[in-house]
Amino acid sequence: MSEQKRLIANRYELGNLIGRGGMADVYEGIDTRLSRTVAIKLLKSDLANDPSFEDRFRQEAQASARMAHPTIVRVYDAGEDIELDSRGNQVKHPFIVMEYVRGKLLRDILHERRLSIEEAVNYASGVLTALEFSHKAGVIHRDIKSANIMITENDQVKVMDFGIARAISDSSATMANTVGIMGTAQYFSPEQAKGENVDARTDLYSTGVLLYEMLAGRAPFKGESAVSIAYQHVSEAPDAPSTHNNLITAELDQVVLHALAKDRNDRYPSAEEFRDHLIA
Predict the structure, then answer these.
(1) CA–CA separation, 110 vs 183, rounded Å?
(2) Spelled out in words, what is the top-level CATH class assigned to the domain 103-279?
(3) Which fold has domain 3-99?
(4) Helix axes 200-216 and 117-136, enclosed angle (nearest 10)
């Protein structure tokens, strides 16, 4: 059987590769039982037998399955597909079956064109609505960035990839204790950059970075390495977004810079309050 026609868990037909991530590949697929198009995330074969990555993959499924909301990509199923290799040994392929979203990554849209102020505010508001829901459910995303935001054909926001999310109740584990620092340096909060505990306000900082990027057409900090960018998140004050886009009002500048406060106690305390100030 060719890879295109491979059947996962005797139910999900694997189609074309549509995305690659650090620990998984994503395929378009068909749920043969329900005759619907789905997205199937498969753990990369070279990581499938690494318990730490396998645990993270299961964690993603469990966290995402709790996120039933229109602004969040739905998870339908998860499990392990078992195959026999040429020597007769069992090979595990953990998988997650997700809602197939027709649209574009926000990252790709930003590469194509500058957003209007209205678009930037609307997209950030959608992300904050998703985070309001997830935070109330006890889940921190930890990796908010343009590559994890889908914009549907109807111009709706869909947040995806809770792959490094952990329940807030388990957040005593610091970022420094994980296998490498997760996330993307451009969107790091100061506490992530320093390897400290994270909480819901970490997501709000990253959303502030995303909002800055959408408004200004560039990230608040640039550097030649992840370390240099992380240092700036900890130690440097960002320019106001209006420095790069004179259509941005002083009030909107203030909202963005409030979200980017170095001390999490100086940021908005919740996604709901951040959104309310943004759309006021």
Answers:
(1) 19
(2) mainly alpha
(3) Phosphorylase Kinase; domain 1 (3.30.200)
(4) 170
Contact 37, 16 (CB under 8 A): no
Lookup result for tokens 């749920």? 31
pTM score, whole prediction: 0.84
- pLDDT, tens only, 219-249: 999 988 888 899 999 999 999 999 999 999 9
Q: Which residues pair with 94 in a beta bridge?
A: 80
Cα–Cα dist 244/118, whole Å: 16
* pLDDT tens column, 177-212: 333 344 478 998 999 888 888 899 999 999 999 999
Q: Nearest Cα to 183, choosing from 125, 229, 115?
A: 229
Q: Could you give the CA distance from residue 270 to residue 245 in angstroms, rounded to a whole number?
A: 27
Which residues are designated catalytic?
Answer: 143
For 35-39, what is the mean pLDDT? 96
Spatial neighbors of 224 by CB under 8 A, at least 6 apart, are none
Read off the pLDDT of residues 54-72 as tens digits, 9 standing for 90 and up.
677 777 777 778 788 999 9
Alpha-carbon 158 to chain mean position: 10
Domain boundaries, the chain: 3-99, 103-279
Q: What is the pLDDT of residues 72-131, one digit of tens each?
A: 999 898 888 877 778 888 777 788 899 999 999 999 999 999 999 999 999 999 999 999
CA 223 from chain centre, in angstroms, equals 22
CA atoms within 13 A on the CB side of 75: 22
- Going through the chain in order, the beta strands assigned E by DSSP cover 7-8, 12-20, 24-31, 36-43, 75-84, 90-99, 103-105, 139-140, 149-152, 157-159, 166-167
